[in-house]
Automatic annotation (TrEMBL):
Belongs to the glycosyl hydrolase 88 family. The keyword Hydrolase applies. GO terms for molecular function: hydrolase activity. Keywords: Hydrolase. The keyword Hydrolase applies. It holds the Pfam family Glyco_hydro_88. This is Glycosyl hydrolase.
């Protein structure tokens, strides 16, 4: 096991002004998180959870897009020091991730997987082997860039569908892997690719009202935009809440790494759309344009991810604007803690209830999701004033 050394922050940001009352409830939330994760880690161990099914986390394959979130939770806690057992599990998961890494089966979600495993290890401990893994994942992610369309390709093909021209909003949250790779190699090519994809996000995925498409298809030869698909949202022109959350946090991070104002403006537009459409308890329904009639579950994972983006936004906008984004994030995270937390449900392994993975596909609806748990942990940690930034 590598030694924990002080966290390096790669981005220049202003400190947050967090109120005493927020620090107090966030501390309480953090204690609940640590207690629960210490307990669940003994059963979950070195595995790849995605969703809690009847209170118990499942175990997906290592190449599944969610494979980084459990080690990400473990690193968020281990970075404090004094959690060697959690750190050891995270390190063992990272080793198991060598299977998809060396099989070259990496897809657009390489950022989700290796940022929160190998990069987290490198950022917290300085482990060289982890740095090499991060660079290998970054090289595979960069290789998915389509020069004509200026987008990173999403999934591989299926037997029946050629998906060379498909791009999805989720990829914007994977770009920090590329920005990081440029920093450590002092070679701007990774950053050029990330920024070019982020420009496509602002130009094509972000709608004038601040909402987001999930899937766009481009002609892979000419780069011309062909059309949109609903994906995990209700409809092509609807507003999948997690897509908006990826947009808020992803564009904020693209601004951090490039200083390009169009990313900051895009992040703000996405944030204002998201906040204007929240229901009374500040936790989004799974799609902001899903019809009121019928099933309309929440997606707590979208709320948690958006809150992390809003907190980072608060660090980079002028002081006069910062409190607007910080207060909005506090309201979301506090509601997740008080209204969706599983602190009184010891038999439930998830930390927050009511995530919705893929409603149109009928997959994991209204249940804890590992990425919802991850972003909740990250948000609470940030609201306690922690400076660890894994992205
Ligand atoms: N990246 C897939 C999702 O957000 O569900």
């Amino acid at each position: 096991m590598s030694e924990v050394i002080p966290t390096q922050q790669t981005q220049q940001t202003r400190g947050l002004v967090i109120s005493e009352s927020t620090l107090e409830w966030a501390d309480g939330a953090w204690q609940q998180i640590v207690n629960k994760v210490e307990k669940t880690s003994k059963r979950i161990g070195v595995s790849f959870p995605h969703a809690s099914v009847s209170g118990v986390y499942d175990n997906m394959r290592p190449s599944w897009w969610t494979a980084g979130f459990w080690p990400g939770i473990l690193w968020q806690i281990a970075a404090e020091g004094n959690h060697p057992a959690l750190q050891e599990i995270a390190e063992q998961i990272e080793e198991k991730l060598d299977e998809p890494l060396y099989a070259l089966t990496v897809h657009h979600d390489a950022g989700f997987i290796w940022t929160l495993s190998a990069l987290a290890n490198y950022r917290v401990t300085g482990n060289e082997r982890s740095k090499q893994r991060g660079l290998m994942a970054a090289a595979q992610l960069a290789s998915r860039f389509n020069l004509k369309g200026s987008f990173i390709r999403a999934w591989h093909d299926t037997e029946k569908i050629n998906r060379a021209g498909w791009s999805i909003i989720d990829t914007v949250m994977n770009l920090p892997l590329l920005y990081w790779a440029s920093e450590v190699t002092e070679d701007p090519r990774f950053r050029h690719i990330a920024a070019a994809h982020a420009e496509t996000v602002v130009e094509h995925f972000l709608r004038p009202d601040g909402s987001s498409y999930h899937i766009l298809e481009f002609n892979p030869e000419s780069g011309e935009k062909i059309g949109a698909m609903a994906g995990q949202g209700y409809a092509e022109e609807s507003a999948w809440a997690r897509g908006s959350a990826w947009m808020i946090y992803g564009l904020t991070l693209s601004f951090h790494y490039t200083g390009d104002n169009k990313f900051l403006t895009g992040a703000k537009r996405a944030a204002h759309f998201f906040l204007a459409n929240l229901p009374e308890d500040h936790v989004p329904h799974w799609d902001f344009r899903a019809p009121d009639a019928g099933e309309k579950p929440r997606d707590t994972s979208a709320g948690a991810c958006a809150a992390c983006g809003l907190i980072e936004l608060a660090k980079i906008v002028p002081q006069a604007e910062a409190s607007f984004y910080l207060r909005a994030a506090e309201q979301i995270v506090r509601s997740l803690y008080e209204n969706y937390g599983t602190w009184d449900i010891p038999e439930e392994e998830g930390l927050i209830l009511s995530g919705t993975s893929n409603l149109p596909g009928g997959v994991h609806i209204d249940t804890p999701l590992i990425y919802g748990d991850y972003f909740f942990v990250e948000a609470v940690s940030k609201l306690r004033g922690a400076v660890l930034q894994l992205w």
